[in-house]
Amino acid sequence: MIERTSHRVRIAVVLLVLYWAALFVATHVPMSIIDMGHNRDKVAHFSAYAGLTFLLAWVLCYRRRLTLRDWIALLGVAAIYGAVDELFQSWVPGRSADLWDWLADVGGAVFGIAVYESVQFVSARLADRITRPTPLLGEDEGKA
User: Fold this and answer.
1) pTM strictly above 0.90
2) How far, in Å, CA of 20 to CA of 66, rounded?
3) Are 79 and 136 in contact (CB under 8 A)?
């Protein structure tokens, strides 16, 4: 089981590195190449940071529920990276630093963490159901 867990964590690390690299590249492409409307831009920011924080949570907190400290750390990493990324975009032709983009990043980060928590909750419930022995017919009748 330990080998399977470490293999899954390695896969998660590779996915996180590839995703983060792709996110960095995508946010530093001049806007003349990528033309999307104002609302689609916010959806892209939200979605990108939801994916980023989901993967971060998967790597850092594999198969466990998050503590308040985890939430704060994950949200802090996403918020700081989002702010730095927005500042760097101001040097890319056709791009600018935008507070609304950063807010979409942070909102997406909260959503990504919440999705991770939901997946962990459902996984734990399913695992509990699978490992809990099912009473045989008639076993519970005498206990009532």
Assistant:
1) no
2) 21
3) no
